[in-house]
Amino acid sequence: MASRMQQLVQLTVALVALVALLHTPPAHADDIDELLNEFDEEDEELLRHIESQHVSRDYELEDQMARELANRIAAEHYGQPDGAGESDDAGPIEGRVPRLIDPCKGVRCGAGRVCRANVAEQRGECVCIPECPPETDPRRKVCTNRNETWDSACEVHRQRCLCNTADPGCRHEELRHVHIDYYGTCREMPECSENDLADFPRRMRDWLFNVMRDLALRNELPDAYLALEHEAESNMTKRWTNAAIWKWCELDGHPHDNTVSRHELFPIRAPLFALEHCIAPFLESCDPNRDHRISLQEWGKCLELEEDDLTARCAEIAKDEEANASDLHDAFV
Ligand SMILES: *[C@@H]1O[C@H](CO)[C@@H](O)[C@H](O)[C@H]1NC(C)=O
Ligand SMILES: *[C@@H]1O[C@H](CO)[C@@H](O)[C@H](O)[C@H]1NC(C)=O
Ligand SMILES: *[C@@H]1O[C@H](CO)[C@@H](O)[C@H](O)[C@H]1NC(C)=O
């Protein structure tokens, strides 16, 4: 089952791939970054949630590691292959190999955590991931809100987990609050010139459409948006509007409340930041009343679109998605 989270990750990949289409001299990240750095605990909770959904690809690996760990522990516990007769379903396995019940089956842990089998209590519990997969790809590096380059998102989540559980592996208490600011190494951000900023909405529109089309071609666009995409393909006047609706509706998922908060911008901001430095001033321009929330109207306006049929479509999609989303609400512990 392709979950919405996976699609989000795939989207990010597409975003990064397609951003090469855009050529902007980089720009300075101003107020929005200050805003993004002013966190209270509740904000952080939400950001973590979004962040962890965003790195769901890491989950697959973590889940796998968890299963291996669980199997190892179980194997140690039931070391000798006998007396495994407790399981009542299915027949005995040839050679009396013990049936290992994986207590971590179906357990999902948040970013930076893995499930560990608690054999005594027959349940899985989420613990900080013992080790992150080694990363040599520089594109997996992340810049934190402390302007420090880390090897991978996993390392950030792991360290945060260690600090939040008072583990001796916590390097500094402050790291309880560390989060990913953007993908790539930390760097000096040059200015976004007025000209570049003025041209940005056009390029953003084009690019959103290209990403949407690319996802559709690869069968990675959620069903709810396929109609939008088809329409955009066949009717030039809907091209940008529909792409804008798609992106906005998708960003507005935490929760679906008809407004995109600054935290919900994470999936668009973090991967683009290092490549498209006008993204920060652009996103800021999408929130002219500075209430930290971007309505669909504001989004349409800053993309320089007609706002006529924006609202109704989005509500439809959100409803459609919510109807199907029940099985996707994994426990982010
Ligand atoms: C962040 O770190 C980079 C690389 O060390 C440096 O060039 C840049 O000036 C720093 N940015 C800020 C805002 O301190
Ligand atoms: C939700 O389910 C309906 C029918 O059950 C389906 O037509 C629709 O495409 C689904 N939407 C998503 C986003 O999966
Ligand atoms: C294309 O979309 C516009 C704007 O919604 C609409 O007025 C027009 O009838 C559509 N054209 C076709 C061929 O569907």
In short:
Keywords: Calcium, Disulfide bond, Glycoprotein, Secreted, Signal. By secondary structure, this protein is mainly alpha-helical. 46% of the residues lie in helices and 8% in strands.
Order of strands in the sheet with most strands: 4-3-5
Order of helices and strands: HHHHEEEEHEHHHEHHEHH
What is the count of β-strands?
A: 7
CATH topology (level 3) name of one domain: Recoverin, domain 1
Mean pLDDT: 74
Categorize the overall geometry.
globular
End-to-end C-alpha gap: 22 Å
Assign the CATH class of one domain. Mainly Alpha
Residue stretches low in confidence (pLDDT < 50, at least 5 long) are: 11-39, 80-97, 326-333
Largest sheet: 3 strands, antiparallel
Strand content: 5-15%
What is the CATH architecture descriptor of one domain? Orthogonal Bundle
What bound compounds does this protein have?
2-acetamido-2-deoxy-beta-D-glucopyranose
| Rg, Cα atoms, Å | 22 Å
Range of helix content: 40-55%
Number of helical stretches of at least 4 residues: 12
CATH superfamily of one domain: EF-hand
Main structural class: mainly alpha
Tell me what the structure shows.
The protein is mostly helical and 333 residues long. Among the domains are: 105-188, Wheat Germ Agglutinin (Isolectin 2), domain 1; 194-320, EF-hand (Recoverin, domain 1, Orthogonal Bundle), CATH 1.10.238.10. The protein has helices spanning 4-18, 31-37, 41-54, 56-77, 153-164, 194-217, 226-234, 239-251, 266-273, 279-285, 296-302, 310-324; strands spanning 113-118, 123-128, 142-144, 149-150, 180-183, 260-261, 293-294. Helix 1 (4-18) runs parallel beside helix 9 (266-273) and helix 7 (226-234) packs antiparallel against helix 8. The chain is globular and about 65 Å long. Mean pLDDT is 74; it is low at 11-39, 80-97 and 326-333. The structure holds 2-acetamido-2-deoxy-beta-D-glucopyranose (3 copies). It comes from Anopheles quadriannulatus (Mosquito).
